[in-house]
Design a protein that fits this description.
Two copies of one chain form a homodimer. In chain A, a hairpin with a 4-residue loop joins strand 6 and strand 7. Chain A is 45% helix and 12% strand. Chain A has three domains: 31 residues, no CATH class; 454 residues, TIM Barrel (Alpha-Beta Barrel); 28 residues, no CATH class. The longest helix of chain A has 22 residues. By secondary structure, the first copy, chain A, is of the alpha/beta class. In chain A, strands 8-9-10-13-15 form a five-stranded parallel β-sheet. Chain A has a four-stranded mixed β-sheet with strand order 1-5-18-17. A four-stranded mixed β-sheet of chain A has the order 7-6-20-19. The N and C termini of chain A lie far apart (57 Å).
Chain lengths: 526, 526
């Protein structure tokens, strides 16, 4: 059976009984009849040969063994030395090859990333593909004024609500910095709380100080019902930039990593070098460095808690070498990300990298092709979690709520491509062709195969427009941006996820400085 | 050596001597320093497994042997029967499996598609990738009014001039119908003459009656200098829809095919079924039918003139099954086209299929992602000629001159992805990383590797905008469509290719009804 056959809509036979049917009806749309879903298997695109993969692996191990990492904090040095690392007189922590390979062999794999709603649980293993938001945009794009306004906590909450309603965005990672939060602690705590209040999908976020992690964990225990329940289904992962590329640990991030790991929070081990600036300009070299860096993080985490769930977050970015500024929408970026997917497959670890980062400042034709090319290539490469894949503009500086809705269509087409082509006796269609051509109507319009595949095999854009020019003119030549604005306004005025019970929300507000007013969350004043 | 290494900029050593250097300086930009060029090798994306490819091949042969083709004209039946086909009492021409395999084995491969300027010669073999226009749009998109106006001969000529100036569009196939030409003969002759006057790149066009082919050949002999010179370097191919899917010959097109083949004109054997309408709705089935149909055309041509150059033009389109209308921008289309690339590789024949056909009516975010996803997947699949890849809107009904310029950037990024990732000791960058990290500056900004790769490895958009939001605001928030309009106007007001000498042009005008005024071609009144 080919990958594509494995990607076919699931048989409805998998869950029987009255309860299963009841659950099925409660869900917005059953996976069974959807042509696409999160977690379909990609991997039919391989930018690297097997030999290339091995060369990159060996070069990364060489870097770890010979160059090592600067700026390790004492607890990191202590834990890693116990495993066999050496701390040199030059202040660099070095990782022997055999140790790294041993850690890779024993590291957590095939784990679930939980949603608050089990319907949104993710299984980022093999070559399964999920699309996610991410990022730290400092602006929200105002489509009407074309201004880059400061992003707020409310914007972040709204982004989460939209993601909750978008079929083709499977994980909500913090995508904007709430610039109305002045205190860093308020920022971290409220970013997380706004996110987990907005969606039942898995949430990713980051914290800058370990005491913020501790406070966030307290809130998560309250939402889960207890620490034990949180640890059984941790539904928030920490996006952690433990490395300052090239090859140095970030000290505060290291401390946050330790607190999160001990607290049972899955870890996105994030190396975000920029080729030509903080990583080699050669694409292969940027991948080597990213792999080396994330492997170091993997050793670090496993030295603290063996088998702790980590996402292999090789996120090399690209510089526009004319200016030194980042270029997220380039072909070079698409290649880097796809190559990273292959490296994660080599290690059989859940891989997360970035795609969909338009350089364009607004959702225009440039943003469209930048996002389309990069997200489809990440998916075809079988990247497990494609971060940054919705809403992003201006090389990660701006975020657009309308683009979330537009990008949901882009990701739908990307997922259709990931699903691939089923080849079997039925789809080869020899008998269908025979029936139509010999004594048949000479076309396939009303053929039972056509009708059967209409919903099961074909993906239709939600806001994309496929009318003919004549029909399009008759309905007033709708502009896709206007359609997205309207859809956003409709959604945000009516859609308020209420999965966190009011009493729990009240209890959290009583203990923590929650800055998003209850009214903004569609709750009445208590 | 990996494919990617093979795609590296060519060494400047390949052409020595004074004449070569002189030619080099005369060229606008040397291939040697370009990070991308036409004819780079793709193929790292394979939507089909090897077993899938074989199943499709076998199903296609079964269709040809058992179902066969209706509506063959007498000369076709006669030629094909001589080769071993059978003409049944049901009026269908059937192609025995062994015969088809024999024709495939002996068919022309590894031939050159010539440009009027040898600099633009194409080698559509292996997994080399070229991007081309094509189509028969009946409207030109007016970006200012958002109207779909009737397309004219002048529009077609202008499109050709723009293509001549665009680095990433390698072949100019007729893309619009000149609706100001009322007589079909005037239409065919003028379409070809406007195209070959506008560009020195290889031209594709079609003719509806054999006497039009004859007249076009006369003109081509005049441009080439003689029939012999034309036959030595035929720089126009005929795009021929010899099949009315499913599985019937088109009679007039068959006659045009015969005249063109005898006249030494390379043939694009075009099967343009539409999945769910004139081809099976199942993607695999649509590929099966397209392969069967083009194989029939290949037998037909080789029965007339063994070894005549043909492009394997499997162009299955997609229906939006909600309306039955075509959807060129869909994920299903991207898969169909990529699968066709693989089938052409299986036969080791030059493959041409379609990508870049936006459903969107204008160059907006939807057009961007539709074009980006489909053109990059065609390239990664190693499709030899990616037709329809620039300018197209509204599922082939509309053409935009501005989009040609925008799409040139899309194709540039696609080509960057096709080029892939070079992995070798230099690019793995271990020593570069060591130099930077240990005693080095801690960044790569001024490193010699970075500077060396800036022009050689990185592709910069021509009109795409990578400014930061601040810089973008400072320069007045340019809109990409305005930029494209300005670029188009600048180009069309100044760029008039004059490769056809005035005397030849005059001679052609004296013998043929050339409707494009000399002034429109930048020539003074004679």
């Amino acid at each position: 059976m080919s990958i594509a056959d494995d990607n076919k809509p699931r048989s409805s036979g998998r869950a029987g009984g009255r309860q299963a049917r009841k659950e099925l009806r409660a869900a917005p749309l059953s996976d069974d009849i959807k042509p696409i879903r999160g977690g379909m298997t990609g991997g039919r695109y391989k930018p690297l040969t097997d030999a290339d993969v091995l060369k990159i692996h060996n070069a990364a191990l060489q870097c770890l063994e010979e160059i090592g990492f600067g700026q390790a904090i004492p607890t990191c040095i202590e834990a890693c030395e116990k495993l066999g690392c050496t701390y040199g007189s030059d202040g660099r922590l070095r990782f022997p090859r055999a140790l790294v390979e041993d850690v890779v062999a024993k590291a957590a794999r095939n784990f679930t990333l939980f949603g608050q709603d089990p319907r949104h649980d993710l299984e980022p293993s093999g070559k399964r593909v999920y699309y996610a938001t991410a990022g730290a945009a400092v602006h929200i794009v105002n489509l009407k004024t074309r201004n880059y306004d400061l992003s707020t906590l409310k914007d972040l909450y709204d982004a989460g609500r939209i993601v909750d309603a978008m079929d083709n965005i499977h994980l909500f990672q913090r995508c904007m910095v709430a610039r109305d939060m002045e205190d860093p602690r308020d920022l971290d705590v409220n970013t997380m709380y706004a996110s987990v209040s907005a969606t039942t999908k898995h949430v990713g976020t980051s914290m800058v100080m370990p005491e913020h992690v501790t406070e966030c964990l307290e809130i998560l225990h309250a939402i889960a019902g207890s620490e034990e329940k949180w640890r059984a289904r941790p539904f928030v992962s920490q996006s952690n930039c433990f490395v300052v590329p090239p090859m140095k640990f970030a000290e505060d991030a290291s401390r946050c990593l330790e607190t999160a790991v001990y607290g049972g929070m899955p870890m996105l081990l994030l190396s975000a070098g920029q080729a030509g600036a903080t990583a080699p300009a050669a694409i292969a070299g940027a991948v080597v460095q990213a792999v080396a860096e994330v492997l170091a993080g993997l050793v670090y985490v496993n030295a603290l808690v063996p088998g702790h769930p980590c996402i292999f977050g090789t996120w090399p970015f690209v510089s526009d070498l004319r200016s030194g500024a980042m270029s997220g929408g380039s072909g070079e970026q698409a290649l880097l990300t796809a190559a990273c997917a292959q490296m994660a497959h080599f290690y059989d670890l859940p891989g997360g990298s970035a795609a969909g980062m338009a350089d364009s400042k607004e959702p225009d034709v440039q943003a469209g092709y930048e996002k389309g090319i990069t997200t489809v290539m990440a998916g075809l490469a079988g990247l497990n979690i494609v971060y940054e894949s919705a809403g992003m503009h201006a090389s990660l500086l701006g975020f657009s709520l309308e683009s979330l809705i537009i990008d949901n269509d882009i990701l739908g087409q990307s997922l259709r491509c990931v699903r691939g082509i089923e080849v079997n006796d039925e789809t080869l269609s020899v008998e269908t062709i025979r029936e139509v051509c010999i004594g048949g109507p000479g076309h396939y319009l009303g053929h039972r195969q056509t009708l059967a595949l209409m919903q099961r095999d074909y993906v239709y854009p939600v806001i994309g427009n496929r009318l003919s020019p004549k029909e399009w003119a008759e309905v007033g030549k709708p502009n896709i941006l206007d359609v997205a604005v309207r859809k956003k306004e409709d959604l945000l005025s009516a859609y308020f996820p209420k999965h966190i019970p009011e009493a729990v929300d009240d209890a959290i507000r009583a203990r923590h400085n929650i800055c998003l007013p209850k009214e903004a969350m569609g709750r009445g004043r208590s």
